[in-house]
Amino acid sequence: MQSWVNKLWYEGHGLRFVLWPLSVLFAGITALRRLLYASGVLKQHTLPVPVIIVGNITVGGSGKTPTVIYLIELLRQQGYKPGVISRGYGVNIKGVRSVRYGDNASQVGDEPAMIVARTGVPMVVGSKRIEAAKQLLSDFDVDIIISDDGLQHYALARDIELIILDGERRLGNGMLLPAGPLREGRWRTSSVDHVIVNGGTAIGTEQQMTLMASQWHLVAANSHKVSKTHAEVKSAAQPMQEQPVVAMAGIGNPNRFFDTLSNLGFTLDKTQAFDDHSAYTEADLSTLAGKRPLLMTEKDAVKCRDFAKDNWWYLAVDAKLSPSFDQQLMASVKQSVIEKKR
């Protein structure tokens, strides 16, 4: 399914013109919704702490999760106590739920499980983001909230908006859903505080973000206790150095991960792209990998750690942004804090 959608949205498939009338209808509905919020007919809920939205205007992965992790670490360095809210995509949560270290991805969603496993940040998930934010403030010592996605969730007032763009795909064919990948029009990029470009090349005032390969970890349960550099992994697991490997990725742009592995010097015997947020079974992945080492993303690993083999590994990546972005963002945060106290 994802492969077909990619052809439609990013490779100029002619069916986009057939779907164009539906895109016009979608544009009208979303425009009316924005107007109702702007006019006050639909009410926004304002929180007592600053809210940073990390979102996008395209469907699919663009690098929001690494950005959220980057912001958590940046804010902590500056003395803030961030918390995170998220919808918990792909799971059925009644009401809202706090995410605890070690929670299964099938319970809270793969991205929340990954964020908490990496950072230990206070986090609450649920389809109603306002309720999630209220519980976060009630249950944890938090003085700033990061919303993982939710750019179009206008019921939640926000102080800072960030759009994350895939630098290779950018806006695809430039059309709204379903003919194209856009949730909102291109105009939306000029209304936010920062547009962050993941990979590719930033244009104009866009901020460049690079995902840097960080550390290799065993996928197996409790493998967070094992942390190795790429060189250490090679010496500890000879098949990764001497044998071809199998690579899998269930993210928005799987080829980005496969290219990273090739650039690190791995020989990819087989690659398997899965739909974003896919669920995995031990049988399926064992069949895929056989006796060969299996390499995957950190987001995939949180769904496989309970049944992983001892030669399954994931690569952690770290987002890197410019010092000027950090300075601009922190200036906006400080101003938001001042305004909240008035």
TrEMBL record:
One of its GO terms (molecular function) is lipid-A 4'-kinase activity. The chain crosses the membrane at residues 17-36. It comes from the Bacteria. Pfam families: LpxK. Its EC number is 2.7.1.130. Pathway: Glycolipid biosynthesis; lipid IV(A) biosynthesis; lipid IV(A) from (3R)-3-hydroxytetradecanoyl-[acyl-carrier-protein] and UDP-N-acetyl-alpha-D-glucosamine: step 6/6. Keywords: ATP-binding, Kinase, Lipid A biosynthesis, Lipid biosynthesis, Lipid metabolism, Membrane, Nucleotide-binding, Transferase, Transmembrane, Transmembrane helix. ATP binds at residues 58-65. It catalyses: a lipid A disaccharide + ATP = a lipid IVA + ADP + H(+). NCBIfam families: lpxK (TIGR00682). Transfers the gamma-phosphate of ATP to the 4'-position of a tetraacyldisaccharide 1-phosphate intermediate (termed DS-1-P) to form tetraacyldisaccharide 1,4'-bis-phosphate (lipid IVA). Belongs to the LpxK family. This is Tetraacyldisaccharide 4'-kinase. It comes from Shewanella youngdeokensis.
